[in-house]
Amino acid sequence: MPYFAAVFASTDEGWVATEADLTESEAPDDVTDLMREVALEAVGDPVLLLIEENDAWFAVVRLDGEEDPRIFVSDASAAQGSGLGGLLFELVTEGVEVKTDGDPAGDPTLLDDLGITPVKLLDLGERAVPTDALAEVAEGAGFTEELDSLRV
Predict the structure, then answer these.
(1) In this predicted structure, which of 23-37, 51-65, 76-90, 119-133 has the lowest mean pLDDT?
(2) Which of 49, 68, 88, 103 is the most exposed place for a label (fewest CB within 10 A)?
(3) Residue-level pLDDT at 43
(4) Which 3-state string (H, E, C) describes the chain?
């Protein structure tokens, strides 16, 4: 299961980025614990986890302080068909209804305050390959250089 995952935390000096190894994650708390570890190095909110798998789907998980994580997945059917995607769906605190193949799931408003409107995020999920979609998310939020440094 080839995937890319990275955590980005907002600081006074910009964004701190680190690649995330999710292979040992067995429960949703493992994912949020990983995000909170990076958040300890940061001063403020938010902390974002960006994931793409097999060029089939991408996800954004957001933590703000001690709140429950919020998540957006570009293709719910594809994500639920993988172990990693299934784990992410457990992070969604309210039920996720998957209607048809290719439908997004989760909260498309989670990046609105970072310059990625719900319409834009839904559009990225529909038309962009995951690598390009995450690059646009990074550009809108202001951490393109940090994302690029992890993709080298």
Answers:
(1) 76-90
(2) 68
(3) 61
(4) CCEEEEEEEEECCEEEEEECCCCCCCCHHHHHHHHHHHHCCCCCCCEEEEEEECCCEEEEEEECCCCCCEEEECCHHHHHCCHHHHHHHCCCCCCCCCCCCCCCEECCCCCHHHCCCHHHHHHHHHHCCHHHHHHHHHHHHCCHHHHHHHCC
